[in-house]
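Two folds, back to back.
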Amino acid sequence: MSDLSNATWQAIPIVPYGAVLHVPAGWEALPPVPANGPEILRATGGPGRNLIVFKVPAKGMTAAQVADTAQEKLEAHGYDDFTRTEARFAGQPGVALDFVTRRDSKGTVIYQTREYFTVRGNAAFVLGMGSATWEEHLPLIEQIADRFELTD
């Protein structure tokens, strides 16, 4: 889905958390997986197109500090090649953290992920989405993050 100019979008309210996720029509919301930590929603657009939304305590930290904490945990799980940029997320300043989640036995990257971070009050919101076809799916990842809303 590299051309999103004519895509129809659907809103998925994340009701008790004051957030709205916007995804292309046809995507399906899935319940969170409690074993995956503070996950509040999963969504899928079919094979290879999945995302996760997390809400974590901000504990007075900035989005960059929350991303630092997440990066430490991700590194402990073997993820690598982290890059960070300032990015708008949910209509406010945030951080985008890119990293490699899987490599083959030769070290070739086979799956990459981007997580967006922002803080509202005492909560940090994180949107994570990855792909085995990074260049193809990056525009979709960016548009989903750009449309994410914090409502109250």
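---
second:
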Amino acid sequence: MTLDQLLMLTTVIDLGNVKAASQKLNKTQPAISRGLKQLETQLDISIIDRTGYRLKLTTEGKQIYSHAKRVLAETDILRQVTQHLSQGHESEIRLTVDGIFDISQLTPTLAQMQKIYPHTNFIIRQEYLSGAFDALLNDEVDIAISPRQGRASKNKTLNYVYLNDHALINVASPSLVARHPNLVSVNQIKAEYLIILQDSGSLTRDFEYGSLDGQKKWYVNDFNTKKTMIINDLGWGKLPKYLIEAELANNQLIAIKPDGNENYILINFYAITHKILGPVASHFWQLLQAQSNDIDNSVMNLAQ
């Protein structure tokens, strides 16, 4: 049994007769008839009912036809993947994204990549604080979406593409705010739990931003958990503004500004790499650069 025989079978059945199949496959009618006979002999079953003008499948033939279509489809995919890789296209691109960054701002670019390079897998993982940058320095990823970090690599030249800014703001539940009606200082809420996001990297060296001595603290490893805990009056802390706009609007969360804690932090985000990128990753990088140029042009137009 060969792929050529399976192709002859499916084409004959799809078109209804050997003559049409011979024209499509550019084979003689005797060659197709002979190929189908050989297939039946090799499988030791009757596949085609030849009693009428239009060839039909036998009961057994229907099963063979169904499997043949699937095998040919898988073969076509394999052929595409092989061609894709033979052109030097990467089988996968590893991307890490800081948890503060709004991933929806990347989805149009990712959709373009998905359409152009359907056989390159994107492996996207989320990290926190220095985690994305750390993963890049440790060669675990090809591109990181991260703030610039104070510590750079001694052995690597880093390339940056500015993407946008995201804000972190202090928030609390209405119940917590009601317990402190004259809240002016972070010292007034030391007895309330500060919900702290743990660094998934190693660059902060366990330094805790905005934490006072004696402050009650709980730790989480993602923003959605932190948000849920704050909404349910288990503490307070900073969250990305884009993540809580609905909750701020409906008063599930309230922005607080106690002295002694940086209440509003604007963070610049960049696409960062240090590698010589392959053709697919390079195209992705170029799209990010174009996105950055669009942002710069928008800012210039607003300033005029």
